[in-house]
Amino acid sequence: MFDGPASERSEARRALFADLIDATLPLAEGVDGRKVLAWRINAKFAHAALLQRARFSTEPAPLRQAKRLADGHLALCEAMLLS
What are the φ/ψ torsions at residue 47 (nearest 5 degrees)? Predict the structure, then answer.
Protein backbone atom coordinates (compact mmCIF):
# COMPACT_ATOMS: atom_id res chain seq x y z
CA MET A 1 0.00 0.00 0.00
CA PHE A 2 2.80 2.42 0.79
CA ASP A 3 5.82 1.03 -1.04
CA GLY A 4 6.74 -0.90 -4.13
CA PRO A 5 4.75 -1.49 -7.30
CA ALA A 6 1.44 -0.23 -5.88
CA SER A 7 3.02 3.10 -4.96
CA GLU A 8 4.58 3.34 -8.40
CA ARG A 9 1.19 2.71 -10.04
CA SER A 10 -0.39 5.33 -7.81
CA GLU A 11 2.25 7.87 -8.76
CA ALA A 12 1.80 7.08 -12.46
CA ARG A 13 -1.97 7.58 -12.14
CA ARG A 14 -1.45 10.84 -10.27
CA ALA A 15 0.88 12.07 -13.00
CA LEU A 16 -1.65 11.16 -15.71
CA PHE A 17 -4.39 13.02 -13.88
CA ALA A 18 -2.14 16.07 -13.43
CA ASP A 19 -1.34 15.96 -17.16
CA LEU A 20 -5.05 15.79 -17.96
CA ILE A 21 -5.74 18.85 -15.81
CA ASP A 22 -2.84 20.74 -17.38
CA ALA A 23 -4.03 19.84 -20.89
CA THR A 24 -7.66 20.81 -20.34
CA LEU A 25 -7.18 23.86 -18.11
CA PRO A 26 -6.76 26.32 -21.01
CA LEU A 27 -10.18 25.20 -22.31
CA ALA A 28 -11.97 25.55 -18.97
CA GLU A 29 -14.04 28.68 -18.46
CA GLY A 30 -13.93 30.17 -14.99
CA VAL A 31 -11.15 27.89 -13.78
CA ASP A 32 -7.81 29.52 -13.18
CA GLY A 33 -4.49 28.24 -11.91
CA ARG A 34 -5.25 29.33 -8.35
CA LYS A 35 -8.39 27.23 -8.26
CA VAL A 36 -6.51 24.20 -9.62
CA LEU A 37 -3.79 24.72 -7.01
CA ALA A 38 -6.46 24.81 -4.29
CA TRP A 39 -7.91 21.54 -5.64
CA ARG A 40 -4.48 19.92 -5.55
CA ILE A 41 -3.74 21.11 -2.02
CA ASN A 42 -7.13 19.93 -0.75
CA ALA A 43 -6.62 16.57 -2.45
CA LYS A 44 -3.19 16.16 -0.85
CA PHE A 45 -4.60 16.86 2.62
CA ALA A 46 -7.52 14.47 2.07
CA HIS A 47 -5.16 11.80 0.76
CA ALA A 48 -2.82 12.22 3.73
CA ALA A 49 -5.72 11.93 6.19
CA LEU A 50 -7.00 8.79 4.45
CA LEU A 51 -3.55 7.19 4.47
CA GLN A 52 -3.07 8.08 8.12
CA ARG A 53 -6.35 6.38 9.02
CA ALA A 54 -5.45 3.35 6.94
CA ARG A 55 -1.95 3.08 8.35
CA PHE A 56 -2.40 3.83 12.04
CA SER A 57 -5.90 2.72 12.93
CA THR A 58 -5.97 -0.27 15.23
CA GLU A 59 -9.64 -1.00 14.62
CA PRO A 60 -10.76 -3.06 11.61
CA ALA A 61 -13.80 -0.90 10.74
CA PRO A 62 -11.83 2.32 10.05
CA LEU A 63 -9.31 0.31 8.06
CA ARG A 64 -12.07 -1.14 5.86
CA GLN A 65 -13.70 2.28 5.48
CA ALA A 66 -10.39 3.90 4.48
CA LYS A 67 -9.79 1.17 1.90
CA ARG A 68 -13.31 1.54 0.48
CA LEU A 69 -12.90 5.30 0.23
CA ALA A 70 -9.49 5.02 -1.40
CA ASP A 71 -10.74 2.41 -3.86
CA GLY A 72 -13.78 4.54 -4.69
CA HIS A 73 -11.74 7.69 -5.28
CA LEU A 74 -9.27 5.78 -7.40
CA ALA A 75 -12.07 4.26 -9.49
CA LEU A 76 -13.52 7.73 -10.15
CA CYS A 77 -10.14 9.08 -11.22
CA GLU A 78 -9.49 6.10 -13.47
CA ALA A 79 -12.92 6.47 -15.06
CA MET A 80 -12.15 10.11 -15.87
CA LEU A 81 -8.79 9.16 -17.36
CA LEU A 82 -10.32 6.44 -19.50
CA SER A 83 -13.34 8.39 -20.74
Answer: -65, -45
